[in-house]
Amino acid sequence: MSTQHIRVLIVDDQRLMREGLRIILEDAADIEVVGEAENGMQATQMAQEKKLDVILMDIRMPVCDGIEATERIRKQASTPQPRILLLTTFDTPEMVIEGMRAGASGYLLKDCSAEEVCSAIRTIARGQILLQASSAAQLLAGLTNPATPSPTAQVETNGLTMRELEVVRLIVKGHNNTEIASALSVSDSTVKTHINHIFAKLGVRDRTQLVVLAHQSGIA
């Protein structure tokens, strides 16, 4: 994340929505709008060309929708990768699931307030995960699949240690590696090692998937 401003790209196929979001964000002293895109294809290209902290991404767009764009951006080699906040009028389990599985870090409905949008961007930029309460409930309910082993069974089978469980719970609360290291009185490198072990044992690729699994399994 930028040390002075959170650099944001606005992606929405409606010009009026883009202009409205720009006005809202430019009123925040710590947020800088560095570009706009009207579809996911443009967003994918701009994510390669610009230094971005957060992409405010609509889901329903022509040419390339927000979920597909999120997947493409996650596959790009840029480091660090921008965090993606999905913004949509739709609140269904399917869309929440698809968006988070694609690699989004948060999900917000378009009926939220200007303050909520800015707060969500700051949360995402800090490396935390954000879901509205209704979306989180739908996400966890929608991920339940009787045909697959329960998350609890997965956690038990893969055998997290007590220290690893502590790390998981701190991640779920939104703490970064340095904060976890301080809470557990260990080094940052030790925390990174624990997280790598947790990801390998649970078969998750990032913190977003870990948080979903932790909530679903009841270990959060």
UniProtKB/TrEMBL annotation:
A molecular-function term among this protein's GO annotations: DNA binding
Organism superkingdom: Bacteria
Assigned keywords, A-Z: DNA-binding, Phosphoprotein, Transcription, Transcription regulation
Domain Response regulatory as annotated: residue spans: 7-125
Keyword Transcription regulation: yes
Matching PROSITE patterns: HTH_LUXR_1, HTH_LUXR_2, RESPONSE_REGULATORY
Gene3D superfamilies reported in the protein's UniProt record: 3.40.50.2300
Modified residues (4-aspartylphosphate): D58
Cited InterPro entries: CheY-like_superfamily (IPR011006), NreC/VraR/RcsB-like_REC (IPR058245), Sig_transdc_resp-reg_C-effctor (IPR016032), Sig_transdc_resp-reg_receiver (IPR001789), Tscrpt_reg_LuxR_C (IPR000792), WalR-like (IPR039420)
Domain HTH luxR-type: 153-218
Pfam family, one: GerE
Name listed for the protein in its UniProt record: DNA-binding response regulator
Organism: Dictyobacter formicarum
High-level lineage: Bacteria, Bacillati, Chloroflexota, Ktedonobacteria, Ktedonobacterales
